[in-house]
Amino acid sequence: MKINIYYGGRGIIDDPTLFVISQITTVLQELNVKVQQYNLYEQRNGITALPNTLKDADGIILASTVEWFGIGGYMMQFLDACWLYGDKDRIKEIYMAPVVMSTTHGEREGMMSLAAAWEMLGGLPCDGMCGYIADTTKLENSAEYAKIIDKKTENIYRTINQKMPVFPASNQAVINKVGVANSIDLTPQESEQLSEYASDDKYVRKQKEDLQELASIFRDKMGQEESSGSSEEYVKTLKKKFTPVAGVSAKYKISFSDNAKLRPIIIDVDNSKCDCRMGDEEGCDVSLTADQRTFEDILGGRMTFQRAFMAGSIKLKGDFKLLRSMDQLFDLMTE
Length: 335
Prior knowledge:
This protein is of the alpha/beta class. Helices cover 43% and strands 19% of the residues. It has helices at 16-30, 73-85, 88-91, 107-120, 136-140, 143-161, 170-178, 188-197, 201-221, 231-241, 292-299, 305-310, 320-329, and strands at residues 2-7, 34-39, 59-66, 95-102, 124-125, 129-132, 249-256, 265-270, 273-278, 286-290, 314-318. Helix 1 crosses helix 6. The radius of gyration is 26 Å and the shape is elongated.
């Protein structure tokens, strides 16, 4: 059995949560459980990649400290990453025990928040532990507190090992009816970029500047300082460059943000068939908005749809996975 511990505190010396999860780890290891601890404050630039570590876990422990209000920013970032990038089918099989210690107040609310969040993700919450600890030394020197931690840890182990059933929760039903956002299916390269650069504002800003500079150089070289294309020409180019991709069936709409004279373009793909036309239709699977120059750079093979979106030059409404398929459907990088 393997249990991952995700610690969302700040790592300060007198944090009572650190002592509790240390005791939990000792008990679990005595029960022949493999324990892996992730300190979120140490991996704050790679939190978006941590949901991948859930795949080989039988259960997890979400541990945090309430220092003034709530479970803390690092834990919220991790839960956000699970919502956006986590494998929901895998999460449905994972038990979670919340551990929340408070140095002020709000430990019960924090534990309930973690349980509710895991239920919304589709996971299986089990009984955890919470407590108000004003002085960590009293926690460390109390045999009674140690006994409580041991007993509760054994209960967590028993729940996960025996895969005890859990009553369904109402918030799961509500989320299912409203419609849960699908996890974003990223390639390994995209996941690596997110883990390293998602929170690096300087890197993102520099990438945008580099892309804008490259686009300007290409336009100057090809004499395209002024955009003069029309929707009719764009439709002809898209029809000419269409390459069928098995299993892709979707309707795309491309609108132009800086030229009201250009009519939106509708691309209706059904496996090997592609109908490109001008129009402003509702009910499209993906709606893109770009300025005319960005779109001409894409048509000219100087930019891809996905790269333009990552740089912020394209606004998207709809399924991100379908946006990635556009670079496969239209072979614009070759003459």
